[in-house]
Amino acid sequence: MPPTLRIRIDHEAPDAPFEQVRTQIAEQARQGALPVGFKLPTVRGLAEELGLAANTVAKAYRVLEHDGVIETRGRHGTFVAAAGDAAVRQAARAAQEYAHRAHHLGLDQEAALAAVRDALRAAYETSA
Fold it and tell me: Do 24 and 71 reside in the same domain of the chain?
């Protein structure tokens, strides 16, 4: 069975619709439900399908492209990129920046790790 993009917008959710689109596409790409090279619908097509404004979907696509999850190939369309490698590289870079900043602020390792654990807990609780 060919892969299918599945997005559900919850208008009662605290996250904005663009964030729901971004999160769901990123998660499906990360889990392999959308394989590398999978062609995504056009911005207008997905917006129509979801009952959203084209600008909402365009914003989600821009953020996903910036994050390395998708890539636009001009008039050929938008495709799932090799997101795993890009995501890991970006996370490592962010961790290095955080470690440098925490050290500069005088935090010991335990305090720095506690801040990360709290931030991760909050991020994953809000996305669940």
Answer: yes
